[in-house]
TrEMBL record:
Record keywords, A-Z: Lyase
Family affiliation: Belongs to the pterin-4-alpha-carbinolamine dehydratase family.
Enzyme Commission designation: 4.2.1.96
Protein name: 4a-hydroxytetrahydrobiopterin dehydratase
Enzyme class label: lyase
UniProt catalytic activity: (4aS,6R)-4a-hydroxy-L-erythro-5,6,7,8-tetrahydrobiopterin = (6R)-L-erythro-6,7-dihydrobiopterin + H2O
NCBIfam families cross-referenced by the UniProt entry: PRK00823.1-2
GO molecular function: 4-alpha-hydroxytetrahydrobiopterin dehydratase activity
Pfam families assigned: Pterin_4a
GO BP term, pick one: tetrahydrobiopterin biosynthetic process
Length: 91
């Protein structure tokens, strides 16, 4: 079940994540393209552990955009917020 938008906003207060429709999004800038790909690989390892997979976009050669949403629930869930917290440790 998706979380109430006010609960999501409260949990994300002060974090680098923003709400975009029914998802949360974070852009991470790294030094170069190889660092971007290394970050994607680390994100993939955590996503596999949790069996919850974000949308990942590498853009501008050194930026990685992560988008989290629980599509089966139709929005943002605790699973997304938990994955976001784990991914914050990588940045």
């Amino acid at each position: 079940m998706p979380l109430d938008p006010s609960a999501v906003a409260e949990r994300l207060a002060g974090s680098p994540w923003t709400v975009a429709g029914d998802a949360i999004v974070r852009d991470i800038q790294v030094p170069d393209f190889l660092a971007a790909i290394a970050l994607v690989n680390r994100v993939a390892q955590i996503a596999e552990e949790l069996d919850h997979h974000p949308d990942i976009l590498v853009h501008e050669w050194n930026h990685v955009r992560l988008t989290l949403s629980t599509h089966s629930a139709g929005g943002i869930t605790e699973l997304d917020l938990g994955l976001a917290e784990r991914l914050d440790a990588l940045a």
